[in-house]
Amino acid sequence: IRKVLLDCDPGIDDALAIALAIGDPAIDLRAITTVGGNVGLQLTTENALRLREYFNADVPISAGSAAPLIRNVEDASHVHGVGGLGGAVLPASTLPVDPRHAAQLIIDTLRNAPGEVHVVAIGPLTNIALAIRLEPRVVEWAASFVMMGGSFTRGNATPAAEFNVFADPEAARIVFGAGWQVTMIGLDVTHQARANSDVIARLAAMGDLGTELVVPALTFYEDAASADGQGPAVHDLCAVAYISHPEFFTAVPAAVDVETSGRLSYGMTVVDFDPPLPNANVPTGIDKPAFWDYVVASYATHFTA
Ligand code: BDR
Ligand code: CA
């Protein structure tokens, strides 16, 4: 069983990734940290709290940074809805947020179990960068670091930049330069994981989880990939899937850096596939049938339990 800390900005696909991390019996979700991203920090935090109670999960949740390190706030409420969960409406939360800053919860969680906790970041990388600056040993303590973000072909926030990196390029640059290996689950691979009509039909059949959360969230969700009618890309689920099923992915070593001064390329991940010194592992392909079977099986634990 793999211990996981999830840093997120729910967010439709973040919500579905939280559902996956809680449902997957091979994952022990130890902490959730929130960051401003798809919507503002207050909403991403409230959404995480609501999801925790919806799934009856016992996991600390800390709020982190409301704003990027340097640039101005850039949200994606046009993609995720003003509340962040598309058409899904969950009951308001009643249980409290952990009073620690997210960066502190990251540090504490890793310090308490060095070498054991996998860090999965599926929002802008502000909290992760702050944790690294506050306590550089987090890089040694993490069992692995997997992020959803970036790409080696195209962007979605701009032609060059993917949203999570574009939302805080300076933070992403710190994270890639921290001396650990970053598994970069970029748009090149997440655009292959699409919730098409067959997938939606399978998820719709999953009791309350389907009718209350997955379907109202996903049917609202339009991203750059959905224009061709093949359904939206469930980006953040791929990062969680990578933790328990890396064998679903083909990946190559690379050196990744982030452009922080380009006019058209601000927030672009520049990927060298022939590097003298790789700092990243970049998935390029995904076994789609195995991935969706895994998602459906993990979600099934929520309504059979
Ligand atoms: C990423 O940006 C966000 O809108 C999604 O939640 C995902 O993390 C995709 O570019
Ligand atoms: Ca996200």
From TrEMBL:
GO terms for molecular function: hydrolase activity. The keyword Hydrolase applies. It holds the Pfam family IU_nuc_hydro. InterPro entries: Inosine/uridine_hydrolase_dom, IUNH, Ribo_hydro-like. Residues 4-293 form the Inosine/uridine-preferring nucleoside hydrolase domain. Keywords: Glycosidase, Hydrolase. It comes from the Bacteria. Signal peptide: none annotated. This is Nucleoside hydrolase. It comes from Saxibacter everestensis.
